[in-house]
């Protein structure tokens, strides 16, 4: 008689002696957007840093999932589900709801890699922050046979223990694992750890065959009984699912599935990877080459630059920098040393800007100038100075491991000594006109809303360290005005009426500020900003940042007095004002990870802390997650229990290939509520200075010779 357990035992016994060939088969996304089969998970992972969006649909069920492969082993998913004709509980007699809108998180961690003898093994948690409809846990193993065939088997709890379940084997370690207590939080969004790996367990599994490079065939045995859907949303007749997946492009896959003996389903997965820009190599100006000095010039190294030649050299330098999308802010020569301050093209290309300035100097300066002191300027702040020797540049440009040698030879110090700007550099005016996208996610009635329009931005710097910023938006097309939900918040409505701002702000003055930046000591920076700080609040913001140039740590303090703006985002204000502020700790970890903790008072007058972990790539991409815990109770906060979400920042030059400091940034929250809300504004100090300090330069030094 057919036995699922016997198939698992046979398959993995066979794998013990199976040679691991170079596989053609690839890991797919399942209907929940996680690495897997059809409904069930598998143990392998997608490529590191991949960001994928998966939409799956079958009768009365639609799931939309965003998944990020945060490390080579660890992935996280945020899921949004539309469920029709579903029971309110797992009891067959529970009342049937016409519609449920559900949000859930999942994580998947591969802790054993596949090799010749062992399968890949992973552990996962589903719906551990949501309402619990999909709550489950699992261990899963996957083994590849040859280059085209894979077998997967696993054990699941919770929702994944609905078919063929048996007594939890973990209960023989501790009897507390035999029972599953059930949910405790009423609002959703609470960490229901008391249920993890508890209660009955069940086996699941499946097989996959790569018929050709584009076609993947899958069959699985599902341990999910669909307890709230079976007999209401659809009729579940068997535990077997069958699917076919076609890869249109490396990052686009379409699946058709026959599910549970009764339903047809479709699934589309689209992915991109921040490591693989569409504009690879860029369309900016090509880097200049080092101009070598001739063999007869060694005796000239003690000569100075004659004063009468300085204007000519300065003009040539300024013109050459403009050709590289750089700007000359100051220029001073003393003996055989030159000090050059410049405004760069991008906060994520600081090392590339540095390398191009150095190479230009070799082409315009007299051969007697040996020492280059280069000073990047951001928001009028001279954030560091990097000293390079011309002879080192000449040796390292084409040398083995020239990038590392040039970094090791560079002296990176604070730039605290003032150097006067060149005549005519200030005032500076930089206008910009472009398109904008304003999305809104997870409104219960309208899951995805989007406005597209025109945005005019400008910066004006009358003197060094003073920056005026302004931005005006006009919608061209979109549907953000559709959302008419009314906030039920018992807190001050500092964010829960965002839909009203979206609806009435057309055109909208989204920003109009003046900021003053200063450097009190080599390690201490200051900022004061006044005006319309963001679409919903205006006022005064002050900030101090302690950031030693050699340190990966920084500490900041911010204090804001703000008033809520009118819904139309013109010049008026509403009658709500608040004093808010935070003390922040920043830690620049290895491999592009950044941790941040903010402790203080939020816009709704609640007290607490925000914890953030970002992954930043060398091309400027950022993907991160955060959560905020304050003294607001889950009941007062409302749906979701506390503020949490994902945030993304995509540099425009990643898409265009052109030098550009602009970013497309968005935050995805399961639900927008008022607890844990902070002022959002541009130009904070940590982002201003960190890219040109030692850790930021080191992480991006591979671009020095680009």
Please provide a written account of the structure.
- This protein is mainly beta.
- Among the domains are: 4-182 and 191-272, monomeric porin ompg (Porin, Beta Barrel), CATH 2.40.160.40; 295-424, GMP Synthetase, Chain A, domain 3 (2-Layer Sandwich).
- 12% of the residues lie in helices and 43% in strands.
- It has 10 helices and 33 strands.
- The strands form 4 sheets. The protein has a 13-stranded antiparallel β-sheet.
- A hairpin with a 6-residue loop joins strand 21 and strand 22 (448-461).
- The relative contact order is 0.09.
- The model is unreliable at 1-20 and 296-302 (pLDDT under 50).
Give a brief description.
This protein is mainly beta and 706 residues long. Helices cover 12% and strands 43% of the residues. A hairpin with a 4-residue loop joins β22 (448-461) and β23 (466-478).
Quaternary form: single chain
**Count of separate DSSP helical elements:** 10
Strand content: 35-45%
Structure classification: mainly beta
Percent helix range: 10-25%
- CATH homologous superfamily classification of the domain at 4-182 and 191-272: monomeric porin ompg
How many extended strands?
33
- CATH architecture group name of the domain at 4-182 and 191-272: Beta Barrel
Overall pLDDT, averaged? 88
Roughly how many Å is the radius of gyration? 29 Å
Q: Keywords for this structure?
A:
single chain, 706 residues, mainly beta, Porin, GMP Synthetase, Chain A, domain 3, 13-stranded antiparallel beta sheet, 12-stranded antiparallel barrel, 33 strands, disordered N terminus
């Amino acid at each position: 008689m057919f036995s699922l357990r016997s198939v698992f035992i046979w398959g993995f016994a066979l794998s013990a002696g199976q040679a691991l060939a170079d596989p053609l088969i690839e890991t797919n996304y399942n209907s929940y957007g996680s690495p897997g089969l059809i409904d069930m998970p598998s143990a392998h992972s997608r490529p590191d840093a991949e960001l994928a969006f998966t939409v799956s649909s079958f009768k009365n069920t639609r799931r939309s999932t965003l998944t990020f492969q945060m490390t080579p082993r660890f992935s996280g998913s945020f899921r949004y589900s539309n469920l029709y004709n579903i029971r309110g509980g797992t009891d067959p007699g529970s009342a049937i709801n016409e519609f449920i809108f559900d949000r859930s998180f999942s994580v998947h961690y591969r802790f054993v890699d596949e090799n010749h003898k062992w399968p890949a093994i992973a552990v996962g948690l589903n719906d551990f922050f949501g309402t619990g409809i999909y709550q489950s846990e699992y261990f899963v193993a996957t083994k590849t046979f040859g280059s085209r065939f894979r077998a997967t088997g696993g054990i699941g709890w919770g929702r994944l223990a609905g078919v063929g379940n048996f007594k939890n084997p973990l209960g023989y370690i501790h009897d507390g694992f035999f029972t599953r207590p059930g949910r405790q939080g009423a609002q959703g969004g609470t960490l229901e750890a008391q249920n993890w790996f508890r209660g009955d367990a069940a086996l699941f599994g499946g097989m996959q065959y790569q018929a050709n490079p584009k076609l993947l065939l899958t069959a699985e045995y599902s341990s999910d009984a669909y307890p709230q859907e079976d007999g209401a949303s659809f009729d579940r007749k068997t535990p077997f699912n069958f699917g076919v997946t076609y890869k249109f492009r490396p990052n686009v896959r379409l699946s058709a599935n026959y599910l549970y003996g009764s339903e047809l389903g479709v699934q589309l997965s689209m992915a991109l990877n921040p490591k693989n820009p569409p504009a690879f190599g860029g369309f900016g100006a090509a880097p200049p080459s080092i101009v070598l000095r001739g063999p007869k010039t060694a005796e000239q190294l003690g000569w100075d630059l004659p004063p009468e030649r300085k204007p000519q050299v300065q003009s040539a330098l300024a013109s050459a920098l403009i050709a590289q999308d750089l700007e000359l802010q100051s220029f001073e020569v003393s003996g055989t040393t030159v000090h050059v301050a410049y405004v760069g093209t991008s906060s994520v290309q600081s090392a590339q800007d540095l390398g191009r300035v150095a190479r230009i100097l070799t082409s315009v300066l007299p051969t007697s100038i040996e020492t280059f002191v280069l000073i990047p300027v951001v928001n009028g702040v001279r954030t560091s100075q990097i000293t390079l020797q011309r002879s080192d540049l000449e040796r390292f440009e084409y040398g083995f491991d020239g990038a590392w040698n040039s970094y090791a030879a560079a002296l990176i110090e604070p730039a605290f000594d003032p150097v006067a700007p060149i005549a005519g550099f200030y005032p500076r005016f930089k206008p910009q006109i472009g398109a904008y996208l304003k999305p809104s996610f997870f409104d219960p009635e309208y899951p995805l809303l989007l406005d597209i329009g025109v945005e005019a931005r400008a910066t004006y710097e009358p003197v060094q360290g003073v920056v005026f910023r302004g931005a005006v938006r006009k919608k061209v097309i979109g549907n953000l005005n559709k959302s008419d939900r009314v906030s039920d918040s018992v807190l001050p409505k500092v964010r829960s009426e965002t839909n009203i701002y979206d609806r009435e702000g057309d055109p909208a003055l989204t920003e109009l500020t003046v900021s003053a930046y200063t450097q009190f000591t080599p390690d201490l920076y200051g900022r004061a900003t006044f005006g319309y700080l963001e679409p919903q609040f205006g006022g005064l913001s002050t900030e101090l940042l302690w950031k030693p140039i050699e340190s990966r740590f920084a500490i900041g303090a911010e204090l804001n007095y703000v008033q809520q703006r009118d819904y139309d985002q013109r010049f008026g204000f509403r009658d709500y004002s608040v004093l808010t502020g935070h003390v922040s700790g920043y830690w620049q970890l290895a491999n592009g990870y950044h941790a941040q903790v903010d402790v203080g008072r939020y816009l709704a007058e609640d007290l607490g802390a925000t914890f953030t972990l970002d992954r930043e790539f060398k091309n400027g991409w950022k993907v991160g997650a955060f959560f905020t815990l304050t003294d607001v109770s889950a009941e007062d906060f409302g749906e979701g229990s506390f503020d949490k979400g994902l945030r993304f920042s995509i540099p425009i030059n990643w898409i265009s290939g052109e030098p550009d400091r602009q970013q497309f940034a968005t935050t995805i929250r399961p639900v927008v509520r008022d607890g844990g809300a902070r002022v959002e504004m541009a130009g904070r100090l940590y982002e201003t200075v960190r890219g040109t300090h030692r850790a930021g330069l080191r992480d991006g030094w591979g671009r020095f010779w680009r």
